Amino acid sequence: MLPGVGVFGTGSTARVLVPLLKAEGFEVHALWGRSEEEACCLAKELGIPFHTSRSDDVLLHQDVDLVCIYIPPSMTRQIAVKALGIGKNVVCEKAATAVDSFKMVTAARYYPQLLSMMGNTLRFLPAFVAMRQLLVEGYVGEMQVCDVRVYGPSLLDQSYGWTCEELMGGGGLHTVGSTLIDLLSYLTGARAHRVHGLLRTFVQQNGLIRGIRRVTSDDFCFFQMLMGGTGSSSSGVCCTVTLNFNMPGSFVHEVMVVGSTGRLVARGTELYGQRNGSKGEELLLGDSGWVGPEVKEMPLPHLCGLSSMVKALRQSFQAHEERRSWARGPVATATTFEDGLYVQTVVEAVKRSSCSGEWECVEIMSQEPDPNHNLCEALQRNKN
Amino acid sequence: MLPGVGVFGTGSTARVLVPLLKAEGFEVHALWGRSEEEACCLAKELGIPFHTSRSDDVLLHQDVDLVCIYIPPSMTRQIAVKALGIGKNVVCEKAATAVDSFKMVTAARYYPQLLSMMGNTLRFLPAFVAMRQLLVEGYVGEMQVCDVRVYGPSLLDQSYGWTCEELMGGGGLHTVGSTLIDLLSYLTGARAHRVHGLLRTFVQQNGLIRGIRRVTSDDFCFFQMLMGGTGSSSSGVCCTVTLNFNMPGSFVHEVMVVGSTGRLVARGTELYGQRNGSKGEELLLGDSGWVGPEVKEMPLPHLCGLSSMVKALRQSFQAHEERRSWARGPVATATTFEDGLYVQTVVEAVKRSSCSGEWECVEIMSQEPDPNHNLCEALQRNKN
């Protein structure tokens, strides 16, 4: 039996998600928005019976068994952790910091019977599912290099907000780069142990953001990851990622894996491959023929991936009679909160590298930092 | 009147160059090869009246006024410097080290009336000539990012040789990267002041190179250059270059410049552009329709560029009655020996960066290093 759903957020993802959920048979019972007005407006548009601007009203809603959180990164941790504490299943977007991600991991570990997954849709896109399968089967031989490029128009909102602020989780690296960091660990079966990066904010002001306000989030980002794998085939893989969001009117989403005996390239939602020795590329998986609405803010790979993710959620829940129970199988490859912490750690290491100019190690937090740490350090300094 | 030409080298470039020279009306009088046999064989094939394996025989040949040097990097400096000393005009490929390049610069400065240019053909390719013109005219607005990628099959020769050896000037960075470093300074009008890079040799042995022999030259290279320009528009440009020569059966040669109001992309020999606000890319310069022979080892942009370079040389020389005199105009944008030293300095900085993991400064040699420097240091160390 499918669980009742509560949705947090009134942005473009929430707007696309609700119809997809309904199409799969989920009932969406409640919607939260930052203001009464925003919530009311979107609830009416999408036909959701209940709306509110108070988070507890959704979290404690009797008919809500699954909470989908698509709100600014800085608010995610609080809602996600609380939802798990109340016994609800959670699908959510990334948090703003590694400390927040760590708190989410702690909560997820504490309630292992609840579904807790990051909404990284790329892992569900058929092109990447097929790509991973082919990599496992040895299509490219020993993996050597992954090369990813995503080009597109500005990620900034119409008005000044978190998307402009690096510290609030804005910027190409945090918003888009994080989905790619996750994807590359999914594809290679390995994690980055050292990273190097360069971030730039070329457009610091525009027609809407001016005066004393300045954009601090990156619109160009370029990073390398050296993967240290568990298996021999994935250790030593070099990943390079180029993100450029100063290219209005374009959208490029290309993920290439080059190995010793061939290569695979996903362009948008299509997958191509070429084995060494063959004359040309072969189309391995064509366009899925997306028939849903086109969404300006949401590139097709994310849109199609979101649709596939919702299908997987339906399969996961429908196996059980009890509304809150779910089967691991259909969502086994989803991004876990642990993966989310890894991704956030890499994002922060890339930012550190961009400041230091040096390769930075990816060290995943194993305990929560002491909130008095800075204070203690200051006291220590004063003593000496 | 066109000068008589002497050619050094029996490789693929020399083989293509001679017919191009003849087609423009140059007479090729002499050919040098490393062995009598190689020289004889190619001279017969190309119809060159004189061949030898002794360099002086070409350099001192009465009818030779222009010397074209296409030999392994480690031998280039010696021939180029000697040719200038004998009063011959010189077109040559890159040297192996910055010290060699510096010696060539010294010679070129000493004989300013002689033509001395590096044979970087990309500066002559119509797509890049047009691209530079459009950049100057402000097509992209303020330049932000240059993104270059070149993918192709292995650069290694059939048998073990200098192409396998990093110290002999082999590898993707030295062979292909150097032409791109030069091209980017031509396009942006700026030079790199800091670089960061990563080199890898994924294929260290193959069917032909085995046993105790190992390839040390890079087959994957990835570097960033921060440009510090003379003009305000080119300072602060980030250049990223990805080279991958583990992709048999493919050839990608893409140079993109992104600016504040638009972008330009050269794919192969074609030039495309898109201004912000326009719906799609426009073709600015189509394929030149190369009608000459296809050369497996030589990608089309280099082949077409070589053809254009030979045309420019013809224009430069035909303006004058005297066989050795030339006009600066047609070859004014060619890569000078000074540019060659800059390129070599960047190449070495990228290699240093790949070892150190840090950003390295590009500091161009202003005097020849003392050959006893290492000895002195050793003595110094012993004293302490």
TrEMBL record, chains A, B:
Keywords tagged on the record: Extracellular matrix, Oxidoreductase, Secreted, Signal
Domain GFO/IDH/MocA-like oxidoreductase: 128-264
Keyword Oxidoreductase: yes
Annotated ranges, domain Gfo/Idh/MocA-like oxidoreductase N-terminal: 5-111
Chief place where the protein resides: secreted
Superkingdom of this protein's organism: Eukaryota
Record localization: Secreted, Extracellular space, Extracellular matrix
Coiled coil: none
GO terms of molecular function: nucleotide binding; oxidoreductase activity
Xref: Gene3D superfamilies: Dihydrodipicolinate Reductase, domain 2, NAD(P)-binding Rossmann-like Domain
A Pfam family that the UniProt record links to this protein: GFO_IDH_MocA
Family of the protein in this entry: Belongs to the Gfo/Idh/MocA family.
Function summary: Promotes matrix assembly.
Protein name: Glucose-fructose oxidoreductase domain-containing protein 2
